[in-house]
Structure prediction request, 245 residues.
Amino acid sequence: MASPQAERLAEQHRVQQVTLRAGVSRDVVALLRDLFDVDNADRTWPAIRSMLAAMAQQQHGTSATLANTYYGQARIEAGADGSFLPITPAALAEELLKVVLDATGIAAFKRAISLGKTPAEALQIAGVTLSGAVSRLVLSGGRDAILGNVREDRQAVGWARLTDAHPCAFCAMLASRGPVYRSKQTAKFEAHDHCACMPVAAWSRDEAWLQHSRDLYEQWQDVTQGHSGADARRVWRRHWDDRAT
Prediction:
């Protein structure tokens, strides 16, 4: 298992990223509330989209910077040999931003209107979908930085998924799979909108199991015994949802 200091650094980093996510979500909702004209949606949307894209790009860089600071601290704590220059993740692609912002912003608003929602309700729905999508894009900066650093740093053995204390069934399932080692670096970090999980670096195979991930692994093995594929995921979701009732 990871040392208490390594655990503390990892959780501190996750909280920093979640705090960044919360600020981004608030700013997205405030921007829609202040500038989106429900009676002239098509006219006001392009300017809002441009501001959202600029915000996402800037905070994507902030997320990467936070991740690289954590990575350097974790590397020192682990006693890793030699020096290492953290990577800088590529900026978000402009076309990706446009597609995601349109789909979760104005398209979500119009879809809600077509389903009979009032303009105020539709705007609220768009705020939720848009803030979730933008925050996911923003935190991809930090997530990509950690995965890229692990891939390039020969002292790191892999990464582990760190969740909050109450992950959803999807995130708990992914965390239950345990560490992703360098030999499996084709694996991507899967994150949904509003996701609070982050990858954190592992420096030894014993250390790679963080917090309650070993317990989640054992739960998954027990709950899904005799099941596979989509059936195993259904059984797991039922088990996870039943825990909250």
Summary: The chain has eight helices and three strands. The first strand starts at residue 158 and ends at 162. Helices lie at 4-35, 41-78, 94-104, 106-114, 119-152, 169-176, 213-223, 229-243. The chain has a mean pLDDT of 91.
